Amino acid sequence: MSFLKRFPPPAEGVRHQQPDTEAVLAGRGLGAGTLYIAESRLSWLDNSGLGFSLDYPTISLHAVSRDLNAYPWEHLYVMVNAKFEDDAKEAPMAEGEEEEDDSDDDIEPIAEFRFVPSDKSALEAMFSAMCECQALHPDPEDEDSDNDYEGEEYDVEAHELGQGDIPSFYTYEEGLSHLTAEGQATLERLEGMLAQSVSSQYNMAGVRTEDSVREFEDGMEVDIAPAVAGQFEDAEVDH
Amino acid sequence: MEVSHSIKERTIAENSLVILLQGLHGQVTTVDLRDESTATGRITNVDAFMNVRLAEVTFTDRQGTVSHLDELFVTGRNVRYVHIPDEVDIRATIERQLQAIHRVRFFRGRDKGRKEFPRAKHK
Predict the structure, then answer these.
(1) Residue B84, class by beta-carbon neighbours within 10 Å (0-12 exposed, 13-18 middle, 19+ buried)?
(2) Matching CDD domains, A to Z (chain B) (predicted)?
(3) Residue B63 CA: distances (Å) to CA of A25, A188, B38, B77
């Protein structure tokens, strides 16, 4: 396999490492080795230190295949948008047979890799690690979606109400970074409740500060769904 | 419906139809890929970059060979079409997703909402 090179295994950002994994390209086994799922690239090295790397932007898709009718071993399937030299393909040419695969390839080249771990139970983790790493490499050529947002972050609602200056100054931001562990826990709890809450007729009486949280910790059932925007406007933030 | 923890991803979703796809979590859907293969399965995640994660997938490659995949992740770049199931109410789905985003954003009430990015640059 002429595309195999010698290089050190990735040291940083390795989300998952799977030893004893065979790599297969277009049906040809490359031997046993270790698969490294790193944030920068996907690498595989055989036990002699030869291997290859794949860049995430070139990976079209990946999948867990347990369909033994399609392929006799459970594996991680990776489809790559690139051509990899395969020594085996040169033989058919010698017989006078044209490489038909290429004739309709005004479209893009595709290489199919399969990574077959000896430990089948690792496939889930391998798949998830790859999903996470792929998400770190969004398509830079994506011109359709205008994902550039300029300026600093600002309070959306205040702006919509015509009240905000852009940029605006809020003690909220400072307050947030000064939250105590208790305050942080309160914040997270309220966020969780708010995400689940249905519009309710009950209003919280009084101000929701850290002190009032403690008051209710004696087991009393209180309907604390905050239904009114601005409810916590006067909540103490700086502690 | 879980909303992304990333401010940037929420903003992107809110300003594009990816938000509709995110509302399809749990639905069995067919995704046509750029290379003419298709994948039919249950949507388990769609992120702001339109990367789609499917479970229990029937995959038909561009030659027509059918196989079954436990899980499939397709990069947004390689998605050509997503077939929205007929029974999905598109408008209601979008509204529900927007509400979920707004609940997260306006948690602190007026003047204390989470920071979000201003409007996208106009080219």
Answers:
(1) middle
(2) LSm10
(3) 18, 50, 11, 21
Residue A77 phi, psi (nearest 5): -100, 135
Distance CA A210, CA B36 (A): 57
Interchain pair B73, A156: CB under 8 A: no
| CB-CB under 8 Å, B76 with A60 | no
Asked whether A238 and A171 are in contact (CB, 8 A), the reply is: yes
**pLDDT by 10-residue block (mean), chain A, 239 residues:** 90 96 94 96 96 95 95 96 67 44 62 96 97 90 57 54 48 62 81 68 49 48 54 64
Task: Report CA Rg, chain A.
Answer: 28
Q: What angle do CA A217, A220, A226 make, to 5 degrees?
A: 85
**Chain B residues touching residue A129 (CB < 8 angstroms):** none
Chain B contact present for A150, CB below 8 A: yes
Which token pair is A194? 């708010």
**Nearest residue on chain B to A158, alpha-carbon basis:** B111
**A29 to A23, A33, A194: CA distances (angstroms):** 6, 11, 53
Q: pLDDT digits over B47-66, tens only?
A: 999 999 999 999 999 899 99
Contact B54, B45 (CB under 8 A): no
Measured between CB atoms, which of B65, B103, B116 is closest to A156? B116
Report chain B residues whose CB lies below 8 A from the CB of A147: 8, 12, 48, 120
What is the 8-class DSSP label of residue A138? -
| A225 touches B: beta carbon within 8 Å | no
pTM: 0.67
Distance in angstroms (rounded) separating the CA atoms of residues A194 and A200: 11
